[in-house]
Amino acid sequence: MHVQQTFEILRQHQFFVKESKCAFGQQELEHLRHIITNHGVKVDDSKITAMVAWSRPTNISELHGFLGLTGYYRKFVQNYGNIAQPLTNLLKKNQFGWHDAAEAAFLALKQAMTTIPILAMPNFNEAFTIETDASGDGIDAVLTQQGKLVAYMSRALGITKKSWSTYAKEMLAILEAIRLWRPYLLGKKFYIQTDQRSLKYFVEQRITTPEQQKWVAKLLGYDYEIIYRPGRENSDADALSRKQGSPILHHIFTSQVSVWQKIKTASQQDPYIQSMGRIANAQPNSSFTWRNRLLLYKGRIVVPNDATLRATLLHEMHDTKVGGHS
Fold this sequence. Notes:
This protein is α+β, with helices and mostly antiparallel strands and 326 residues long. The chain has 13 helices and eleven strands. Helices cover 43% and strands 17% of the residues. The strands form three sheets. Strands 6-5-4-7-8 form a five-stranded mixed β-sheet. Strands 1-2-3 form a three-stranded antiparallel β-sheet.
C-alpha cells in the first residue's frame, strides 16, 4: 500500500528512482549506520565487529577514532559515560598515557558493545517516560515508552559538578535528558520518574536561588509531570549511576561517627547533661533517657553547651556536600 502510494506521487510529479538504489520486501534496512527491523533499531553487526577488533590506541588520534565510533552508539549502552571516563580523561592536553584504568575501560567498552539491546521505535502517538538518577560519579536517564526501552543517556560528572548536592545533580539529570531528547518530547505531555521526592513539587516550590530560576526557564514550554518513585523501584536508571563502595558513602559514615564521639566526650564535662543524666537514671519513666552514652530528651539527642561543637553540627547539617540542605 505504502509503496503504491509512493510510486503514484513520484509519477504525478514526474520524479524517477534509480533501480540499483532501491530495495523492496526487505526484513531489515540499513539507515545512518543503524539497522531498522520490525522489532526495533539495532547496531550494524559490521560496526560491532570493528569495535571489538579495534587494537589498543597508541596515540590521541587512534583513541579519538575508537571513542567516536563507540560514542555514536552510546544510546544503546548502559552507563556509557562512566565506563568511558578513564579514556576520555586521556584526551586532555598532555594527559595521554596508557594505564591499567584505561585498559580496563577499553575492554569494558568492547564488552558492552557486544551485549547492546534492540531499541524500540518511538511511537509519537504515545507518551514518553524519562527515568533519571544521579550519584557522585555521574548522571543517567532512560527513555521508555509503554515499558519499552527507547534510549539510554549517561554523563560522567566533572570535578566541579561532583561537589553539587544530590538535589542539584538530580535536576541536572532531568535537564540533560530533556535537552537530549527534545525532538521526542516537545509538544506532547511526558512523564519524569525520579527517586528525589522534593523534585516532585519543584514547580510548586518557592523559587529562591539563581540556579532554580535557570532550571525553571529551561523547562518552560514543556508539558511534563514529575513522579516520585523510591530508589528500590527506580531500578533502570538507579543501576546506571550507582557503584558499590562509593567514596561518598565512606564520607558520610566517617563524618557521622566523628560527630557522635565529640558529643559523647563533651557530655562528660557538661554540668547540665550530667544533672539531667542523674534524673534519667533515677526516674526511668522521665523524658530523659540514655542510649549509647548519649543523653536523649523525648528521643532527641541533647547537645552539650559547647559553642565549637554546635557550630560544627550546624556546618555538617547545612553546608557540607552531604548535609541535609541543598
